[in-house]
């Protein structure tokens, strides 16, 4: 049955957490009440990407975008838009500092500046219905591969496309497949790495949540290319929705004969098993992941013998990230030349010569439009932050952007025009990583930020090798010293030396990249470190031990008349003063929580 | 073969060789702290980091697990490598400042004081440095996987599952052996009661020399505890035995030897002392059997021959209780004969090696042999306390502030009083018993046992080493409790008997034999078990019984028993007897 209108309600994790399922029920109730449930259909989709605007909904085919929905908005919305045909302006997106709202999703800069490949179907299909995926051209690529192409042709196509590993390493996918295929073995495996452990990163989760079949199709094609018949998807158990949608997708694909024996009536058989990870960050590392699948402790091993030679169960194994797999079917359908036309550099000679296609980032931190974005390679960081991200929150000043997850480096404003490209990002001390992007503003202390991210990697170190286990902990100790005002100039030297050594000699990429936040902040924001060490001050007023709250007596009396709000709100009872008199902060008692600072309406309290 | 250059030296090595091994071959030292030859390289200490140069680019790899490649150029001592090693050593020194292995390595690399302060500092000399060798040995070599790591990052530690003693652990000690800091100790179970296995006070390894006096004195592999026999792994001994004498495929085998005569000298067993719980064996500390104590006295034993209590202290008073299970209506009525004298020997040695008081609890003193009485007299002169009377029980007493001691309650029949003696150590003299499987032997050889279960001799005075079965002889404690001189004498006598028969070459046998008429034998086998000499056997192929002429004494039991009347006495057939009778009557 055809409907005149489809309401695509986002059911990504962010929107679900913000009650989007209630909104969906309310919508259905309201449509039923109004008697138009036969004309308007409510569809739950995977993550739309604009998480900052959730819960959100897109009206199709008009393309009208509604955001920040509340249950109480629904009756009005149904009445106005779906009965009377007048879209509701107040529920639409309004860019910061502008007055008029933008009705159409495609006109919103957040969406307009994106190029969708891996996320092609996001927000457009119900991820739990294979028919909707097929209707959007799904499994066409697999059919093409199995019926008209040889494995060599598939590999060549992927090589020509210039697709590189989206999990962070940026290894050319075609070469990986080719090597794996070349190894002599009776059994080969393909693995999808969905163990997304970076705090604040949710690219893989969103892809699986919105388009699980794209991943399955990609794996199928990959398996055909390298000659594997078994596949594994290693996914975190903390991703319940993604896990459930994957299970549904695998079941449906098996029912349709798209997984299992003799796919499309050919000799090719392939099936996929899901392995759930217990949440150790290091299990995202390929060798640790394989160890984990084998039932061993999730610890990495040296990769001098690559996993394409000896991987899972010592068999040639081709492991790719979720996003990499999601790109594969598109490359087959639309051709390598289309894919390689997007992006930077030239990969026809050197596979490492450029970055092609798109990259999905989860944009978070101090930008207005946080969410999931897919941008063409080569786009500048400035475009991402200002055009798509809508600039810095509250009009503050941009300070740095960290790319690549907790072990990525911070990139300062002077390098904002840097194109998104594997080599470029590495050159400035950061990395593509799996696609986390955290924006910081003037209120963030870079030492504190470095310490924060290092504390994550340090805690997630498996502890196998000395540089990572001992080294990161000593680095963290030094950062702790600096942020508490006990650091010395020698500490800075030692910190830097230690960082380089940990990068150089760690066993796996976790240790090899963990010092990146420290090294880049030392490189680009050394003055902040020096202020901490020399002047015992934190310029961003973040490091508690280095700041103190004071009350300006003049403002307190003249403007605030000694209102005493600060004194009442202080949890430590550290603010003394009679009513209508000047108040003082007892520094011995002050816990530096900042509640008084926030509560003073007259800005009489300042930080030194 | 692969050609590579290490520190300017060109060399050729086999494929799959690691840089570390290649360097070793070239005489270049690369420091390591987590590597040993018999396990897969683990690559975690990173001390073996070396610089691998490819064109203009160089990278750091670990030598222990980086396989050599054609044309590789390796620098093992570049500034970058030295710098990495220096910081690694600083990190290790700051965490484990007192571990000798770490200190030595630091010294070798010229590092004295670390620039870091470690909050996780462990000042123990035997601290675990997390090299993982124990875990890998247990996993990969032993194949048991008892040890593992727990926790992550800086909190990582080597543990047994749930930090409890593992049932899986076979106490092979491989982990302790590879541990570079001696952090792992194999807890000695030798004094833990229950762990004592019959002949040994000490725990032993899977390869052991049965006794230090064994001839030939060669080690043997205990199949029950050999890791290779259990898991197929390990093979450490094979790797290390230079002459290549280890052969896992050797099996225990049964050998059939055809002989004319057999001498049974299967010896005895000691009575199980746990059957008499009143003496506390296996329950109380410092209660030993005479064999345990003999083991303690041995200079190659668990205490190197020093007499000590379980806590290592020298006993102040030792009691030796005779006749445990011997001359006892409830157990064995006979006298075990040897206890009195070895108890006296113990007393003498205790007096000799310690200052302890020694008490002998005896029923009668039986110092019957040559020179024995004199030895007994000498002991009395040495001041050994002799208490004549049976011991009731041994108990443990605890007095606040003092170490627990043992108390022996007994009746002193010489002074007619009940006495309680406080002691630090009690030695029990268990009865000598015939072996538990002697009844099986009896059946095999068709010989008899006397009521005390020892094998019965043909005549107690005139033929004490023969049995009722020709060609089967007995000697030693298989025949009855006796000491070494008596055993030797009896065995010599038996050997002489055997030799006398061998030297004759032929055996004259009595002509009176039983005979089976083969054609008529139904093969019912009734005669087989009846024959007191085991002379009748059954021939499977012919399905008839067969009488061995050499063994048959012509007693006639089978003749009377045969239901088909096909067994007759040779020269004594019914017809012959009837003819004789008729002849007699005719006269």
Number of domains of chain B: 4
The biggest sheet of chain B amounts to: 5 strands, mixed
How many beta-strand runs of chain A? 17
CATH architecture of the largest domain in chain B: 3-Layer(bba) Sandwich
Q: Tell me the greatest interface.
A: A-B, 33 and 36 residues
Biggest sheet details of chain A: 5 strands, mixed
Rg of chain B, rounded, reads 36 Å
**How is the quaternary structure best described?**
heterodimer
Helical fraction of chain B equals 10-25%
Radius of gyration of CA atoms of chain A, rounded to a whole number:
27 Å
Q: If classified by CATH, what would the architecture of the largest domain in chain A be?
A: 3-Layer(aba) Sandwich
CATH topology of the largest domain in chain B: FAD/NAD(P)-binding domain
Structural class of chain B: alpha/beta
Taken as a percent bin, the fraction of beta residues of chain B is: 15-25%
Task: Give your account of this protein's structure.
The complex is a heterodimer of chains A (608) and B (587). Chain A is of the alpha/beta class. Chain A folds into five domains: 5-112, Glutaredoxin; 130-340, NADH-ubiquinone oxidoreductase 51kDa subunit (Rossmann fold, 3-Layer(aba) Sandwich); 358-441, Ubiquitin-like (UB roll) (Roll); 446-535, de novo design (two linked rop proteins), CATH 1.20.1440; 548-607, Alpha-Beta Plaits, CATH 3.30.70. Chain A has 25 helices and 17 strands. In chain A, the strands form five sheets. A five-stranded mixed beta sheet of chain A has the order 10-9-13-11-12. In chain A, strand 6, helix 11 (240-255) and strand 7 form a beta-alpha-beta unit. In chain A, helix 9 (203-210) crosses helix 10, helix 17 (446-460) runs antiparallel to helix 18 and helix 17 (446-460) packs antiparallel against helix 21 (516-524). The mean pLDDT of chain A is 91. With 587 residues, chain B is of the alpha/beta class. Chain B folds into four domains: 2-77, Roll (Ubiquitin-like (UB roll)), CATH 3.10.20; 128-248, no CATH class; 261-508, FAD/NAD(P)-binding domain (3-Layer(bba) Sandwich), CATH 3.50.50; 514-586, Alpha-Beta Plaits. Chain B has helices at residues 19-25, 79-95, 100-108, 133-142, 174-178, 227-231, 236-240, 290-297, 339-353, 372-382, 438-445, 484-504, 526-530, 557-561, 574-586, and strands spanning 2-6, 9-13, 49-54, 57-62, 72-75, 148-150, 157-159, 207-208, 220-221, 262-264, 268-270, 287-289, 317-324, 357-362, 385-388, 391-397, 405-412, 417-423, 425-430, 432-434, 472-474, 514-516, 536-539, 544-547, 567-569. The A-B interface holds A 280, 297, 299, 301-302, 304-305, 458-474, 477, 494, 497-498, 501, 504-507 and B 43-46, 49, 60-62, 65-67, 80, 83-84, 87-88, 91-92, 94-95, 115-120, 130, 132, 148-149, 151-156.
């Amino acid at each position: 049955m055809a409907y005149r209108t489809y309401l695509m309600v986002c059911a990504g994790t962010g929107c679900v957490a913000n009650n989007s399922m209630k909104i969906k029920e309310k919508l259905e109730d309201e449509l039923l009440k109004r008697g138009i449930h036969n004309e308007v259909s409510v569809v739950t989709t995977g993550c739309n990407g604009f998480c900052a605007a959730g819960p959100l909904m897109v009206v199709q085919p008009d393309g009208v975008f509604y955001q920040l929905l509340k249950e109480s908005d629904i009756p009005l919305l149904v009445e106005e838009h779906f009965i009377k045909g007048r879209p509701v302006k107040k529920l639409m997106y309004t860019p910061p500092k502008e007055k008029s709202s933008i009705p159409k999703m495609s006109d919103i800069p957040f969406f307009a500046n994106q190029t969708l490949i891996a996320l092609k179907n996001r927000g457009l299909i119900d991820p739990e219905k294979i028919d909707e995926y097929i209707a959007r051209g799904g499994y066409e690529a697999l059919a093409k591969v199995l019926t008209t192409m040889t494995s060599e042709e598939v590999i060549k196509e992927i090589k020509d496309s210039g697709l590189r590993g989206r999990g962070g390493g940026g290894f050319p996918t075609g070469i990986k497949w080719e090597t794996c295929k070349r190894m002599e073995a009776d059994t080969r495996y393909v693995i999808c790495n969905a163990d997304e452990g970076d705090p604040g990163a949710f690219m893989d989760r969103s892809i699986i949540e919105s388009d699980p079949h794209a991943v399955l199709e990609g794996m199928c094609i990959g398996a055909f290319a390298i000659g594997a018949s078994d596949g594994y998807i290693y996914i975190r158990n903390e991703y319940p929705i993604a896990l459930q949608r994957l299970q549904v997708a695998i079941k449906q694909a098996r029912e349709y004969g798209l997984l299992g024996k003799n796919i499309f009536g050919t000799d090719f058989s392939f099936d996929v098993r899901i392995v759930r990870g217990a949440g150790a960050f290091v299990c995202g590392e390929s060798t640790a992941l394989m160890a984990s699948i084998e039932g061993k402790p999730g610890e990495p091993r040296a990769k001098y013998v690559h996993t394409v030679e000896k991987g899972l169960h010592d068999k040639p194994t081709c492991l790719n990230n979720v996003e990499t797999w999601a790109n594969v079917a598109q490359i087959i359908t639309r051709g390598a030349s289309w894919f390689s036309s997007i992006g930077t550099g030239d990969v026809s000679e050197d596979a490492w010569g450029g970055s092609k296609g798109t990259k999905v980032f989860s944009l978070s931190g101090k930008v207005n439009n946080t969410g999931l974005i897919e941008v063409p390679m080569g786009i500048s960081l400035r475009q991402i932050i200002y055009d798509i991200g809508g600039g810095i929150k509250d009009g503050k000043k941009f300070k740095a952007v960290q790319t690549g997850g907790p072990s990525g480096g911070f990139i300062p404003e002077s390098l904002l025009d840097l194109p998104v490209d594997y080599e470029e990002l590495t050159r400035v001390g950061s990395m593509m990583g799996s696609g986390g992007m955290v924006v910081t503003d003037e209120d963030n202390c870079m030492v504190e930020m470095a310490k924060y991210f290092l504390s994550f990697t340090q805690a997630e170190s498996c502890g196998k090798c000395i540089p990572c286990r001992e080294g990161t902990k000593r680095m963290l100790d030094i950062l702790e010293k600096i942020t508490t005002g006990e650091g010395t100039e020698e500490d800075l030297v030692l910190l830097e030396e230690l960082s380089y050594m940990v990068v150089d000699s760690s066993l796996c990429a976790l240790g090899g990249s963990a010092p990146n936040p420290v090294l880049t902040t030392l490189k680009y924001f050394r003055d902040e470190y020096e202020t901490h060490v020399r002047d015992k001050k934190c310029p961003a007023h973040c490091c508690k031990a280095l700041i103190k709250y004071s009350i300006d007596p003049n403002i307190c009396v003249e403007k605030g008349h000694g209102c005493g709000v600060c004194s009442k709100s202080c949890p430590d009872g550290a603010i003394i003063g009679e009513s209508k008199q000047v108040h003082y902060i007892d520094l011995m008692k002050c816990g530096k929580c900042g509640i008084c600072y926030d509560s003073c309406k007259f800005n009489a309290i300042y930080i030194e | 073969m692969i050609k590579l250059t290490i520190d300017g030296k060109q060399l050729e090595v086999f494929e799959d060789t690691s840089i570390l091994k290649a360097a070793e071959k070239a005489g270049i030292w690369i420091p390591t702290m987590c590597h040993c030859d018999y396990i897969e390289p683990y690559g975690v200490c990173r001390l073996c980091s070396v610089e691998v140069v490819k064109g203009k680019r160089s990278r750091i790899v670990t030598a222990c697990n980086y396989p050599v490649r054609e044309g590789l150029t390796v620098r093992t001592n570049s500034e970058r490598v030295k710098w990495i090693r220096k910081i690694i050593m600083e990190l290790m020194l700051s965490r484990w400042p007192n571990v000798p292995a770490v200190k030595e390595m630091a010294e070798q690399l010229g590092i004295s004081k670390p620039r870091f302060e470690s909050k996780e500092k462990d000042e123990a000399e035997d601290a675990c440095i997390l090299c993982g060798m124990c875990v890998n040995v247990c996993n990969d070599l032993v194949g048991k996987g008892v040890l593992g790591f727990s926790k992550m990052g800086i909190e990582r530690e080597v543990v047994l599952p749930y930090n409890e003693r593992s049932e899986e652990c076979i106490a092979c000690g491989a982990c302790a052996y590879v541990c570079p800091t001696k952090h792992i100790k194999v807890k000695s179970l030798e004094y833990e009661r229950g762990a004592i296995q019959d002949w040994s006070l000490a725990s032993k390894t899977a390869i052991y020399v049965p006794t230090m006096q064994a001839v030939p004195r060669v080690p043997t592999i205990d199949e029950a505890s050999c890791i290779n026999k259990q898991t197929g792994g390990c093979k450490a001994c094979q790797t290390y035995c230079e002459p290549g004498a280890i052969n896992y495929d050797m099996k225990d085998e049964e050998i059939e030897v055809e002989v004319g005569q057999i001498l049974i000298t299967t010896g005895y067993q000691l009575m199980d002392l746990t059957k008499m719980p009143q003496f506390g064996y296996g329950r109380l500390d410092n209660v030993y059997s005479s064999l345990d104590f003999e083991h303690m006295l041995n200079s190659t034993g668990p205490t190197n021959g020093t007499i000590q209590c379980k806590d290592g202290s020298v006993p102040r008073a030792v009691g030796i209780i005779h006749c445990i299970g011997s001359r006892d209506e409830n157990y064995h009525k006979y006298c075990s004969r040897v206890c009195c004298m070895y108890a006296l020997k113990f007393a003498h040695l205790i007096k000799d090696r310690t200052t302890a008081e020694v008490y002998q609890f005896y029923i009668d003193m039986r110092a019957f042999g040559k020179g024995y009485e004199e030895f007994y007299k000498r002991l009395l002169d040495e001041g050994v306390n002799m208490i004549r009377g049976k011991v009731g029980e041994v108990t443990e007493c605890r007095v606040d502030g003092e170490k627990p001691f043992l108390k022996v309650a007994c009746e002193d029949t010489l002074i007619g009083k009940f006495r309680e003696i406080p002691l630090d150590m009690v030695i029990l003299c268990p009865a000598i018993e015939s072996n538990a499987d002697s009844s099986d032997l009896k059946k095999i050889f068709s010989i008899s046992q006397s009521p005390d279960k020892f094998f019965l001799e043909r005549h107690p005075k005139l033929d004490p080493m023969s049995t009722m079965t020709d060609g089967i002889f007995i000697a030693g404690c298989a025949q009855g409790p006796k000491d070494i001189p008596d055993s030797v004498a009896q065995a010599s006598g038996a050997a002489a008997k055997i030799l006398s028969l061998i030297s004759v070459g032929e055996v004259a046998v009595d002509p009176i034999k039983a005979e089976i008429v083969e054609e008529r034998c139904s093969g019912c086998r009734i005669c087989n078990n009846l024959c007191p000499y085991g002379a009748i056997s059954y021939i499977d192929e012919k399905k008839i019984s067969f009488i061995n002429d050499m063994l048959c004494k012509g007693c006639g039991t089978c003749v009377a028993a045969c239901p088909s009347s096909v067994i007759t006495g040779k020269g004594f057939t019914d017809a012959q007897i009837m003819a004789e009778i008729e002849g007699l009557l005719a006269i």
